[in-house]
Amino acid sequence: MKVVQVKCPQCGLPIQTKVLDQLFYCESCHTLHSRNGGVNIVPYEIADVRPDLKGQATYYPFWRVFCTVNITNSNVAGGTLYKLSKYMQGGGNTGSLNVFVPAAEMDIGTSKQLAMSLTYEPPRYRPRMDFGGRERLGTNITKEEAADVADFVIVTMEAEKPGVLQSLTYDLKVNDIKLIYLPYSSAPGLVPAW
Length: 194
Ligand SMILES: [Zn+2]
What we know:
The protein folds into two domains: about 1-40, no CATH class; about 45-190, no CATH class. The protein is about 15% helix and about 40% strand. The chain has two helices and eleven strands; from the N terminus they run ββββββββαβαββ. The strands form three sheets. Strands 6, 7, 8, 9, 10 and 11 form a six-stranded mixed sheet that branches. Strands 3-4-5 form a three-stranded antiparallel sheet, with no helix packed on it. Strands 1-2 form a two-stranded antiparallel ribbon. It is globular, with a radius of gyration of 18 Å.
């Protein structure tokens, strides 16, 4: 296994990681940074596990893409959008939402299911400062790629109800992207642990 050694851009201490990860986490000052196309500090949050959790939890990274959707044209049988209408204020054509993009490597079915459920029902958690010694998964989707995936999540979410959506045209503006680590317990399947 390749061991990468880099220096933390914040405190200068070396970061050693054996995890195959696009991002580097400094154990001393808790700074997260990326190195593709230059050194960039990545804003992030870590969700605390719920106090009554039994057993282990693993941290999964998600890009939380805060975007504004402006629908320019939609043709929906029955007249209303399936899920996007929830975000459109006062029945207008514009709304903002947080789209969750799974950033760890996983099968497409799980990724899609997590993206849709977290986007539709955003997780509520107490943030914590560190991982508390828990395992975390590496990130293999970059921040830049996350914006494209967010677009895909919105379309998929809207097209989930078959035969209803005829056409949809919209502009997507990405306002902010942050990495969110959410804990999941592993047995059996992925169970939210926050
Ligand atoms: Zn540091």
